[in-house]
Amino acid sequence: MPNHDQDQLDPIPQAPEPKARPVGATEYSWCRSVPLGTGITVLALLLSKQPNIHLLQTTLDTLQNSRPLLRTKLRFNSATNTFSFITPPAPHVRIQPLDLSSTADIISNGDQNMDPYHVILEHELNKNSWSTYLDQSSDAETNVFFVTLYTLSENRWAVVLRLHTSTCDRAAAVGLLRELLVLMGGENQGGIAEEYENEAEVSLGIEDYIPRGKGNKPFWARGIDMLGYSLNSFRLSNLDFVDADSPRGSRVARLQLDSDDTQKLLDVSGHSVFALLHSSAHYCFFVMPFT
């Protein structure tokens, strides 16, 4: 007898749809600024041992699962002139490994008096994957997170994470770097491991996390801000740029303190200090030796 149950095939399961949300007001300001070169966050790790790419990729997948914004794509709709975050259901950002020859080609285009590691850092700062958004006549969709492994020499490697600041600003980058190092080391600190047990949902816009009424400014405070903006615009309009036409680029400023100066700083602060300050135009990198 024919088995009618077998004739009724189970429907093919549908793949999960990507989640989407419009960018918030603060995120929108970064979306407008980054194509011009302002607002690219770069994290760089200098390694003396060749990293395990499989372990590193697994760690990045874990971060993308716990922090969905890392796996989002930034989409621009030219018809509505709006930006939105499109979050695929699974991690998709992959490491781009560059061998010694490819890395040497990049380093040769930089300042030969600089450490190759710093040349790579400046190269990443000036590598704008979102410049296509300057053309507002066409749609665009790009990742907000890129990872590259550079081979500096036979015993030096650099892992560089480059992010759109609308998804990871300077403050968040410190936490992201800490989580990456903890996961790579297989450690369980501060409850980080527990966060990864459950997949996180797509986050809200920055403004949605501010309690109702906390973001409101008094009338006079807004008036003072507007007056300050006006005065600053008059002051900046008188700046005389010697060269306003040549291409602009981000550079790294490095300041190294000796043991005596470091101790003086510790005496003032009262605790260990490692300062890494950066802006959209340049980095200030303080190297402080400890004894």
From TrEMBL:
Specify the domain of life of the species encoding this protein.
Answer: Eukaryota
InterPro entries noted in UniProt? CAT-like_dom_sf
Q: Where is this region: Disordered?
A: 1-23
State the protein's name: Condensation domain-containing protein
Q: Which organism is it from?
A: Salix suchowensis
